[in-house]
Amino acid sequence: MTDAATRTIRDRTAIAGVGVSRFSLRAESSPMELAVQAFKAALADAGLDRDVVDGVAINIGWPLGVDYDRFAEVVGLRLRFADQTWTHGRFVGPSLQHAAMAVASGLATCVACMCAVSFTQQRGLLGGPGDFEGTREEGGTHEENPVYGLTAPAAGAALSFRRYMALYGATSAQLAAVPITFRRHALLNPQALMQKPLTLEAHQRSRWIVEPLHLYDCCVVSDGAACVLVTTAERARDGARPPVLLAGMQGMRAGRDEFLFGLPGLGIGKQRRFPYTPTDDELLVYRMAGVTQQDVDGLYTYDAFSPLVLFVLERFGFCGLGEAAVWVQDGRIGLGGALPMNTSGGLLSEAHVSGWNSIVEIVRQLRGECGARQVEGARVMQWATAWGDSVVFRR
User: Fold this and answer.
1) Going by C-beta distance under 8 Å and a sequence separation of 6 or more, which residues neighbour residue 17?
2) Domains in the chain, CATH or no CATH each
3) How confident is the model at residue 28 (pLDDT cuts 50, 70, 90)?
């Protein structure tokens, strides 16, 4: 990417407001009802009228939600930009990036990034007998392989971590540092669903979901919605809250060496072994934002399964290949540590809103609104995933 292209997007857009619905472990509302709650909360947070919103980037499509046009009709929007994806955590980064590019190019004035899920109403749609996506030719939707009896979404992450353990000597007890740390964060978050402390003993004693992943290595199944309002930096500066700028971004990766729930070279059909070292292109997000990993005050990732946290640390060069299981020990990714991660509790302990709840947390952290779990002096925070996409935010 040229310097001119970098300047085209850096700091030109910002998040003006965020909102969430109530999170729940039991079915209480439809995805549409949850989406409306979050949308209204985001408008109130930003101090904006709904007529300003002329775009949506929506992650509540089939089979778990509603379409962009129906949402616009229900909340009374007149759209001139729409972007819709399926309800998967992999689309958080791309949807947010599409919203920023739409605003920066003038295709929209303000884009509401929306996600609303009612997993408790629709158990079995992901990895169960009603999983329509799992009938696709290449198999399941989360890198599981039904041909071999792997029908749970956790199976892909389990495969990757099993190979990672064999290659680098990582253990389940080391992996436990991830859910234990995120549970500590959740205990400081009144909205988090998991409010009971988690110990190493409890983690190791819990049942297997797909070995080597225990129960607490897998995210909660919950209902909830989130809304993030993306507009121009100028408009955001006139809003009710301090703007959070989108400083840099890079897209999702795919290819013969890629596996959704693992580093390149891990997973089904990835027999070729090679030492993964991120290239300049794979770290574009830092160059675009004008920062380095050392500038990042907090890292947030899609943590549906604990190993994904290890993989993202290595993918973005925070530690070397095979080092993450040791790197996350001794409070390093906790509040007060060298690199706090998923400070709301994430999908493992706050709620499963496909990762959008972590984008909301990033915004609130950079506005200094997180109380007991506030990262002191936070100025730069990053969303990044094991499959290679990322957004850097700054205040």
Assistant:
1) 42, 43, 44, 45, 46, 47, 48, 228, 229, 239, 240, 241
2) 3-394 (3.40.47.10)
3) confident
Tokens at residue 55, please?
Answer: 């775009």
Q: Could you tell me the sign of the dihedral formed by the alpha carbons of 92, 97, 100, 103, in that order?
A: negative
Rounded Cα distance, 235 and 6, in Å: 21
Residue tagged 């709904």 (tokens) = 50
Number of alpha carbons in the 13 Å side-chain half-sphere of residue 55:
26
> Directed axis angle between helix 154-168 and helix 307-315, to 10°?
60
Span 312-337, pLDDT tens digits: 999 999 999 999 999 999 999 999 99
Q: What gap in Å lies between CA 386 and CA 395, rounded to an integer? A: 25
Q: pLDDT tens across 285-319, in order?
A: 999 999 999 999 999 999 999 999 999 999 999 99
Q: Measured between alpha carbons, how far is 163 from 150 in angstroms, rounded to an integer?
A: 16
**Average of per-residue pLDDT values in the chain:** 90
HEC readout, the chain: CCHHHHHHHCCCEEEEEEEECCCECCCCCCHHHHHHHHHHHHHHHHCCCHHHCCEEEECCCCCCCCCHHHHHHHHCCCCCEEEECCCCHHHHHHHHHHHHHHHHHCCCCEEEEEEEEEHHHCCCCCCCCCCCHHHCCCCCCCCCCHHHCCCCCHHHHHHHHHHHHHHHCCCHHHHCHHHHHHHHHHCCCCCCCCCCCCCHHHHHHCCEEECCEEHHHECCCCEEEEEEEEEEHHHHHCCCCCCEEEEEEECCCCCCCCECCECCCCCCCCCCCCCCCCCCHHHHHHHHHCCCHHHCCEEECCCCECHHHHHHHHHCCCCCCCCHHHHCCCCCCCCCCCCCECCCCHHHHCCCCCCHHHHHHHHHHHCCCCHHHCCCCCCEEEEECCCCCEEEEEC
- Residues present in the chain in total: 395
Work out the number of other CB atoms within 10 angstroms of the CB of residue 107. Answer: 16
**How many C-beta atoms lie closer than 10 Å to residue 11's C-beta?**
15
